[in-house]
Design goal:
Layout: E1 4-7, E2 29-35, E3 41-46, E4 52-55, E5 60-68, E6 74-82, E7 96-101, E8 104-105, E9 109-119, E10 125-126, E11 136-139, E12 148-159, E13 162-163, E14 169-172, E15 188-197, H1 204-223, H2 226-232
Length: about 230
């Protein structure tokens, strides 16, 4: 059987729009879809950083955190852990997926990086010895999140404000993610997605005001010395 493994990282395109104090709408709902993780289905959850919510028929804890970084960017960190240490996240031969759908962007954003890591029954990070998603092995780039996994950066996938498309991960079958471990030792998964505010493009009225201001500077420079004119320019 052919094995496939993909982390969906949206459309790798480039665009731009305004910075915002918060990139996501707190308290808004979105969906988590899952397949053989350990059950299959979808649940409505609330974008409420710092809280833990039950999904997957009460079998999985989902904890959401938002970690601000420089330039107004934010990591959205989604951590999944089975409630029971005896319940693995999936089994070796099953096709597995976990995907947030409709993350509530409060403003236009660029999706710029992703990172994943795995956990055992006790919640401890399982260090990766080989690439799972074909990305770069690394220590966690997210402030406050310890451990190691893999990720990529350098994207500039633009999305308008509103619900984002599916940005999840899947493995067909699950044994690809195990790095030689038995499936019974994999109970958790963290997916971190980094977003940045899009750069503002001035509206026509704003351009008119800016041009009028530049014209004023030009008139002031013309009436003064050459040195003053050069400084104004």
């Amino acid at each position: 059987m052919q094995k496939k493994l993909i982390v969906t990282t949206a459309l790798l395109l480039g665009l731009a729009a305004p910075a915002h104090a918060s990139l996501f709408t707190l308290g808004a709902d979105f969906t988590v879809s899952y397949n053989n993780s350990p059950d299959s289905g979808s649940d409505t959850v609330t974008f409420s950083p710092g809280t833990t919510q039950l999904i997957d028929n009460g079998k999985v804890d989902l904890t959401i955190n938002v970690v601000p970084v420089g330039g107004g960017a934010e990591w959205v960190v989604l951590s999944y852990q089975t409630v029971s240490a005896s319940q693995p996240l999936s089994t070796a031969g099953e096709n597995w997926s976990m995907a947030p759908v409709g993350l509530p962007a409060a403003t236009p954003v660029n999706f710029i990086a992703d990172y994943t890591q795995w956990y055992g029954p006790d919640g401890a990070n399982i260090p990766q010895t080989g690439g799972i998603f074909g990305q770069t092995l690394m220590s966690s780039p997210i402030p406050g999140l310890t451990g190691s996994g893999e990720g990529s950066s350098g994207y500039k996938a633009p999305f308008p404000a509103g619900p984002l498309p599916s940005l999840g991960a899947f493995a067909d079958p699950f044994d690809i993610v195990l790095n030689g471990l038995p499936a019974t030792q994999v109970n958790g998964f963290t997916q971190a997605l980094e977003f940045a505010p899009q750069t503002a493009v001035p509206e026509l009225s704003t351009w008119a005001m800016m041009l009028a201001g530049f014209a004023g500077l030009g008139l002031l420079g013309w009436s003064g010395s050459r040195k003053t004119s050069a400084q104004a320019a």
